[in-house]
Design a protein that fits this description.
CATH superfamily: Rhomboid-like
Mean pLDDT: 87
Radius of gyration: 17 Å
CATH topology: Rhomboid-like fold
CATH class: Mainly Alpha
Strand content: under 5%
Distance between the termini: 43 Å
Number of helices: 8
Low-confidence stretches: none
Structural class: mainly alpha
Order of helices and strands: HHHHHHHH
CATH architecture: Up-down Bundle
Length: 190
């Protein structure tokens, strides 16, 4: 007798993160963006306000709308399970937290008039980190070089030439964090 295929919760950190992003985006849409601005967007606010520090992490859950959420969720669901399997749930959670905090801090210090919302920095960290999956000690994968040139190069060019509401800095920093952690983690695993 053939077993019926079952759906498994194969990547708890990634699935939990995407489900949380969905719930936060839904509440943001329902509230007309008020909840997103209050809890899930980081911007230059007083360091005496405890919410400033909380939003340094929670902003990655908020998204400006469904298109923004779907774009990020697609990459997270595509790349995240492979990374969670390779590095483990705890390490992937640390990568998410490090990327969120680092990007928020750099934005707070150097771009005080820019608000951040969404998981794009984490997506870029995942993209670059995924390019290290075939890493061997003493080698630089060509996939990493191409990803760096294509994805990070595009963000540098757009950051210079395009005026929009996209934080290219968070994409670039996410990619840099993915590169540093990808290299470091793969050297440690060898």
């Amino acid at each position: 007798m053939k077993k019926r295929p079952i759906i498994t919760f194969n990547s708890p950190i990634v699935l939990g993160f995407v489900i949380a992003c969905f719930a936060v985006t839904l509440t943001g849409v329902i509230s007309g963006g008020r909840i997103t601005r209050l809890l899930f967007m980081t911007y230059h606010s007083s360091l005496k306000n405890p919410m400033t520090y909380i939003r340094f992490f929670t902003y990655v859950l908020g998204h400006s709308g469904w298109a923004h959420f779907i774009g990020n969720a697609s990459y997270l669901l595509l790349l995240g399970p492979m990374l969670e399997e390779k590095y483990g749930a705890g390490t992937l959670l640390q990568i998410i937290a490090i990327t969120a905090f680092s990007t928020a801090l750099v934005n707070y210090i150097f771009f005080p008039s820019v608000a951040l919302c969404g998981a794009s920095g984490i997506v870029f960290a995942f993209i670059v980190l995924a390019s290290f999956t075939g890493f061997k000690n003493g080698e630089i994968p060509l996939t990493f070089v191409l990803v760096a040139v294509i994805y990070i190069g595009q963000q540098v060019i757009e950051g210079i030439t395009v005026t929009d509401d996209i934080s290219n800095m968070s994409h670039i920093l996410g990619g840099v964090i993915g590169a540093i952690l990808g290299y470091t983690l793969n050297v440690q695993h060898k």
